């Protein structure tokens, strides 16, 4: 028998599309509801208290409305702050997003890598814990950038972005003491893989960029293994505040299977 429950993905904006893409590649038979909390955007400059209060309440409303089989918090900032509270409040599987520090440590040849995220993410003790567990023999440098979130959002709206902005973001990481050793950069915000090509082009040297999207996709596939799926999979993008999507943004959403747009 068909199971019409969707997979619900949640982010502050369009960044979680970098998680949706690999998940759809593994599970094309699923229906998806992608929620962009543009009413609360951007999370990276908000206080932990604001995010801790907003995210569980909002996800509670979304679960009531869409009755998903699983929730993915496709946002590093929301996950590092509110994941435990969301899991305790919801009676269904919740997959979070964590910085890809373990893969970076496995891949770095110089034993030095950077963590590029929002200010809220890079200062979390969770990053300290992951570094201690999986990269104790590595130099781990961090840099927080709200600007890069804005650049990713602008790119998907079809707006031009300035290469010098990407160079400035990378300089904040690479110009730190020891930064010359970095060979790998963790994109610890789901927005950032959307501009990985621009970052690579702006880099003063060859860098490897890693993110958590593929690992999250594998986790979702594992948790939904052997489940029934809808007869006709669908995709819907939901925004929490009024928005007039540009043609480019509509195209970017449609390219990821999100043919319908609605406001919560």
List the helices and strands and how they pair.
Layout: E1 7-11, H1 17-26, E2 32-36, H2 48-66, E3 70-73, H3 76-89, E4 94-95, H4 101-107, E5 112-117, H5 119-122, H6 125-134, E6 139-144, H7 147-156, H8 163-174, E7 184-187, H9 196-202, E8 208-210, H10 213-223, E9 235-239, H11 247-255, E10 260-263
Parallel strand pairs: 1-2, 1-3, 2-9, 3-4, 5-6, 5-7, 7-8, 9-10
Helix pairs in contact: 1-10, 2-3, 4-6, 8-9
Protein architecture, described:
The chain has 264 residues and is of the alpha/beta class. The chain has helices at 17-26, 48-66, 76-89, 101-107, 119-122, 125-134, 147-156, 163-174, 196-202, 213-223, 247-255, and strands spanning 7-11, 32-36, 70-73, 94-95, 112-117, 139-144, 184-187, 208-210, 235-239, 260-263. A six-stranded parallel beta sheet has the order 4-3-1-2-9-10, sandwiched between helices. A four-stranded parallel beta sheet has the order 6-5-7-8, sandwiched between helices. α3 links the parallel β3 and β4. The mean pLDDT is 95.
